[in-house]
Structure formats: C-alpha cells, structure tokens
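Long-time lurker, finally posting.

We've been working with DUF883 domain-containing protein (Chondromyces apiculatus DSM 436) and I want a structural starting point before designing mutants. I don't trust myself to interpret raw outputs, so I'm hoping someone here can both generate the structure tokens and explain anything notable. Sequence follows.
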Amino acid sequence: MGQKLLEMAPVVPRAIEKARRADEKLVAFVQERPVTSLCVAAFAGYLLGRVLTRIG
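Top reply, 14 upvotes:
Generated this for you. Predicted structure of DUF883 domain-containing protein:
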C-alpha cells in the first residue's frame, strides 16, 4: 500500500493544478457569459432529471 502511494505522489500536484486551471476557465466563462451559463446549467439539469427518472 505504501509503495502505491509513493508511485502516485507526483501525480497529485498535476491533478490539483489541472483542477485549478479548469476552475479558473469556468469562472471566466460564467463572468463573460452569465445568461449562456445559466441556460447550459438548466439544460444539463433537465437532461439529468430525464435520465434519472427513466432509470428510477
């Protein structure tokens, strides 16, 4: 178990940096296009709701 953690150690900072960059891009997009962002979020919620009602 300890060996696996040591092997994954270099991956963690890269993953954190990628997540940080994705967050910055998302924030910038929402600030530039708030109405579009709201529409996309509403549509994604609608689709997710439709899928989940079909499954459940």
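Before you design anything, note these points.
The helical segments are 2-8, 11-32, 34-55.
The chain has a mean pLDDT of 91.
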